[in-house]
Amino acid sequence: MFGKKDDGYDARLNQAKFLSELMRTRRPFCFLRMGDMELVYLLAQQHDKLDAIEFGDGPVSGTQAWCNPGLSAKHAARLRKAYEGADYLDLHEKNWPNEHLVPRLALERAAGSYRNPTKEASLVFLTWTESEFKPYCQHRRVGFAGAEARVLELLSRKPEFKQASVQYWPERARIFYHQVRDDGRNLDANLDLVKEDLREFVREHRLDTLFLSLGGGAKILGYELSRELGICCFDFGAMIRAFTYSGCDGNRVARSPHSPFFFRIPFQTHMDALEQAFPNLTSAELLAKAHGQLLLEVLKKQVGWTFASWEFDFGSENVSSFCLAFKEYKKRYQRLFTSSSAAKKERAGFLHFCGTHSLTNEGKYFLRKFRAKAAVRKVLDTCFVR
Fold it and tell me: What is the pTM of this model?
């Protein structure tokens, strides 16, 4: 879906260095990315079809991905203004839907602003985070805000994180964290309340740079706050999930649509932080988060790159990591498997996945039963028709 990391790597590396230079020298400064969901949203606005846009928080599912910008039609003008005024806009043409849809979008970009010069130089935030994030942040006052900010804060104190992230994490930065209102849920209704929370967060900690992960809301608030507060705002997107090694968005209980990768975090370490950050999850929701984490172990991986939720790699390293995590999962969450009808449904979806890919004996047994029942139903249906 995103192409190969090596294709255009030198062009992205050059753009990453250029982006850092802009971020160091210009205030206010705002870096935004054109996600495929935001692109569809803007095209729908362009053709007066925004009423058909989905912006809810989605289902409970640790095996199915879900995403949307989180914004209803009432925020369309602000989103367009943010994209038109951002100092640097990455149009993400290496994401194949964007490659075909970006030419249809009418944007009146501000004079003196920048964008990725070619398709190959797009997705620069991946390369920037891999190569420029650490040196840029050193000795700065930076903040992370998003639905996974609390998980990142908790993990950043753990020795497992410190060891795994040493190549990427700015140990000499002054770092502050802000868990957004309602854990990022109900973004459409809360957008301006979230903005005021962020304004206070920036002022309280005298931040120079704000890394914001908040779907379509990050585009609007990053642009507006950069102008109003005279700071640098960076549309960080999935990168907080990369640093926390999260299989699900913080504001949802479904799998994330894509997952950038830098390093693994042990399942038990991640789930300790997740349970502390989100203490009010139901049993089904907690199982869904755990299942999303287990599926992340077998997702395709390359350092500094991202893969879509359906791009699996069942090679030995991933399967070994899955099996290790699965043992901890059974020990930790077996009490939840039959705790409610919603938990049973969530568990069934996970077992079906495991059986389909021959990952666990429980999954293979579940799939045999599932197929046997389906065969019996087919026979009975045929008999009744006759």
Answer: 0.94
